[in-house]
User: What shape does this take?
Amino acid sequence: MSENSNEIRLIDYLKGTIAVKAFDQNLKNVPIFFIHGITASVNFWEKGITEYVRNNHPWFSVSLPGHFPSKLAANLKLEQINDRFFYDALDAVLREMTANGEKAIIAGHSTGGFMALNYAAKNPEKVAGVISIGGFGIGEWTGLEGNLQKLARGNFLEKLLFHAQILLMKSSRWIYRRAAGEYVTDKDALYRSEMFEATLNAIYPHIKQHTNRAMYYLFHQIPLLDIMNEIKSINAPTLLLIGEKDPIIPLAHSLELTTLLPNAEQVVFKNTGHLPFVEKKAEFDAALNGWLQKHFPK
Assistant: This one.
């Protein structure tokens, strides 16, 4: 078991290094591993985690692969970015940060939600529960991130444009902040959110250091991901938290996940985009806390 420290720890594995932070390790309930979405950082969850989680569960914030200070291995090939790649990264974290035989709740936003579902499908014995927040089983996106996927997989000039846009995103906190507005239904409410601003302050120093290589690898390969046949094997309690008007993950896809998962509950937040934990914070917190209380009482 890890020590009770929220300092960033880097875990080495064959395909790179993964950053993780540990919180509230003195608590005895089932540990929860939270994974952020693409272009964010390991500091993503600290400002918005619910008080119920802080008071009742040891929890961890886990980086997506390739997101600074995590790194991809120098010899990693583009075609190695697949569902097994994401599994190996999370497996390295759980092996290092949990006791032998201990089960965990895996929670993730967007690509982090994919990682949670992917891991639970491949290693059900290790998973006590799954929380997918705007997650997916098929990696083709729409909206802003879908356009970046198309550019990454396009011709030479389109690839140049992809790299230019990533450089632009990293170059300015203001530009990154404005881009986040494309994920929600109420931009003004997002920009007024103290939690959003605090989270942005926490993650932007890392965002500036994401490498174009890592972003290109991920945006190029994620559209090829498809674990829809595998997730039928997830028997652990699963919570799907879905934005009705998510511009990245279509509502129809999120609803299809619910039909495939044998032990799933879904909450659809009305008139909400890809960031329900900001857009509908009170409702989101109540849904998350209620599900944890129901399935993992202290």
